Amino acid sequence: MSEKPSVIKRIFKSLWVFLNTSRKVFLNLVFFIFVIFLISIITDDSDQVQVANTTALVLNPKGDIVEQKREIDPADQIMQQAFGQQEENPEILLSDLLMVIEHAKTDDRVKTMVIYPQNLQRAGFHHLQVIGDAINDFKESGKDVVAFGDYFSQGQYYLASYADKVWMNPEGAVMLEGFGRYRTYFKSALDKLNITQHVFKVGTYKSAVEPYIRDDMSDAAKEANKAWLQQLWHNFKLDIAENRNLDLANFDETAEQLYTKLQQADGSFGEYALQTGLIDELRNREQIRTDMIAKVGKASKHDSFSQISFKEYLTTVKPPVAMVNPMSDKVAVIVAKGTILNGNQKAGSIGGDSTAKLLRKARLDDKVKAVVLRVDSPGGSAYASEIIRQEVELIKAAGKPVIASMANYAASGGYWISASANEIWASPNTITGSIGIFGMFMTFEKALDKVGVHTDGIGTTEFAGFGVSRPLPENIGNIIQLGIERGYKEFLTLVAENRNMTLEQVDAVAQGRVWTGAKAQELGLVDKLGGLDDAIAAAADRAGLKNYDVLLVEKELSPRQMFIRNLFENAQVLLPEATSKFEQAANNPSLKQRIMTMINEYEQMNQLNDPRGIYSFCLTCEAEF
Per residue in 210-243, pLDDT tens? Predict the structure, then answer.
């Protein structure tokens, strides 16, 4: 009898091994067939990207413009593309856009540029300005630029305003609603759920925790936010006014003003945009197609005008693998983009350990003579920020200058990691400062009591058994607050020592308050105003370099990942798009946008992992476009 179960067990075990092996063989076979399919597409000369002798470059970024793309498994990208799935949150490198515009300027085949920003989602003000500067430089070649779309969001229109001519569909609209910062507040909801909030902070303006302890924005937060939002809005209007030769009084600051102008336009947003000078002409798609064919000729493979998209043109100018001259001196650029978290993090977030490792790599490379830390971050873990800052100090100690270059944001922890640099460069519209510290957690003893759940026991100290199911003892709360105050003092001290200021001077401009880059320069928190190229030149000058190469130091992909990524990027251009090139992008109502904002804010707070629970983070440092 004992033999029978053993035989059955062996049969089922053998059957499972067979099925599992068959499954693996099948999946690998499907994968390799797909890879062979992609390779055949890429190696087929008939489908290679070619630039016509007379053509238009269509600048049509799809997704968010970023300093650094988040890390995604290349195999996952291939499978998404294979099954026709759109990437949920596509990203475009700012450097890729600038590279394309720069090359097209001197490419005799490119006769004109078409800005089609319909699928542009999110972009920081600084990034839009940098692209705008590149477009102005393109126009110096004598080539003209046109922009068109079915409608323009605020950020999309800003980019379009750099064109010589702006065309819009007669049924379209341009809405310049201004900048705002609105958040959702949860205090009453938490009170009704009997959840106890414990908040520890230093800084009158440190408002990241306000949604959990208030039902509205504090007067101090409103005061600070209003100041930098108004400055950004003024600069935004100023740029558009200059691009479009408009008066600043042309912009509508009240609903009544807009209503009056719409009445004059018979309720048509298209006519309103035309009458106010925001656009040059109202044209439908067929009129635009006909005009562009007259300008650059008809495409060889379809009925539209001769054109090459941003993504297609990029494959012709960007090498698959960056070539590095092993003999030249280098200025290393290290991107710190995203929320600062403890430990090792993927690209698109800043890890205390992983970013410090990149800085260490630059420090130990004899060919690297200077370093630029490119910061685009609202902050995060205070501990991780300090780990990164310590590496900046070690680079300086090794005799290599460090320049901090601030992009859209370098606030709280983003300022912390920048503070020790030899120089700090920022855009006039960078959001920086927010020098403050906070800690926060919740306990659920009251909520659990409502359902009859209690925690009790005995410990050898007051700290034993401390957790979210028990009330926070006052003495322990005092200890935590003491740690927060200590962290704030350390923040003030490192800024004072590196900025040649007294503690009192730093404290006066700290308190968690947010500043624009231009104001931060006035206050002594920033040295100079300029972009990444300016910071690189400053780093080279400090290192005494006349001839040098710029080296982007980033996490290295494995040979497998590199192969798959290059394969995917080439195939993605050659495979057909799921939608037509000028199809109207989906534009969801504001309710979805508000829900997504709430989810993003929750995820930002939820992923914070400082081992001491102390954070230098600015959740409000973003203007809504």
Answer: 888 899 999 988 998 999 999 999 999 999 999 9
Question: For 565-594, what is each residue's pLDDT tens digit?
Answer: 555 555 444 444 433 344 333 344 455 555
Q: Are 379 and 338 in contact (CB under 8 A)?
A: no
Whether 580 is a known active-site residue: answer no
What is the reported pLDDT for 568?
Answer: 52
Instruction: Report yes or no: 288 and 167 within 8 Å, Cβ to Cβ.
Output: yes
Q: Is 508 in contact with 404 (CB distance < 8 Å)?
A: no
- Note the pLDDT tens digit of each residue in 94-137: 999 999 999 999 999 999 999 999 999 999 999 999 999 999 99
Same domain, 167 and 68: yes
Whether residues 424 and 462 share a domain: the answer is yes
Which residues lie closer than 8 Å to 573 by C-beta, 6 or more apart?
49, 311, 312, 315
Residue 84's domain comprises 55-180+230-319
pTM exceeding 0.85: no
CATH of the domain at 474: 3.90.226.10
Percent of the chain with pLDDT over 70: 79
SS3 529: strand
What's the distance, Cα to Cα, between the start and end of the chain in Å? 76
Q: Which of 412, 427, 434, 616 is catalytic?
A: 412
What is the arrangement of strands in the sheet containing 281-282, beginning at the earlier edge strand?
281-282, 165-168, 144-149, 110-115, 55-59, 307-309
What band does 86 get if pLDDT is binned at 50, 70 and 90?
low
Whether 279 contacts 288, CB under 8 Å: no
DSSP states of 403-435 as a string?
Answer: EEEEEEEEETHHHHTTTTSSEEEE-TT-EEE--
In a domain? residue 164: yes
* Annotated active-site residue in 206, 337, 369, 400: 206
Amino acid at position 164, single letter: D
For 27, the token pair is 């999946």
Residue 61 lies in a domain: yes
CA distance 5 to 25: 30
Is 202 contained in some domain? no
Amino acid identity for residue 124 in this structure: G
3-class DSSP state for residue 246? coil
CA distance 79 to 472: 49
Question: In terms of domains, do 440 and 504 share one?
Answer: yes
User: Is 206 one of the catalytic residues?
Assistant: yes
Beta carbons of 170 and 140 less than 8 angstroms apart? no
Q: How many CA atoms lie within 13 A of 200 on its CB side?
A: 23
Q: What's the number of domains the chain is made of?
A: 2
Q: Between β-strands 528-529 and 350-351, what pairing exists: parallel, antiparallel or unpaired?
A: unpaired
What number of other Cβ atoms are within 10 A of residue 223's Cβ?
A: 13
Residue where a domain stops, chosen among 266, 287, 319: 319
| 108's tokens | 């005799």
Q: What is the DSSP letter of 248?
A: G
The token pair that represents 345 in the structure block: 């993090």
pLDDT of residue 585: 37
Residue pLDDT, tens place only, 180-199: 888 889 899 999 999 988 88
Q: Angle, to 10 degrees, between the axis of helix 559-574 and the axis of helix 74-82?
A: 30
Which of 29-38, 448-457, 541-550 bottoms out in mean pLDDT, i.e. has the lowest? 29-38
DSSP lists the bridge partners of residue 431 as 409, 516
Do 413 and 544 sit in the same domain of this protein? yes
Share of the chain above pLDDT 90, in %: 58
Better-predicted residue by pLDDT, 26 or 168? 168
Residue 396 domain-assigned (yes or no): yes
Structural domain ending residue among the three candidates 295, 319, 343? 319
Let me know whether 138 and 65 are in one domain: yes
Residues 447 and 311 in one domain: no
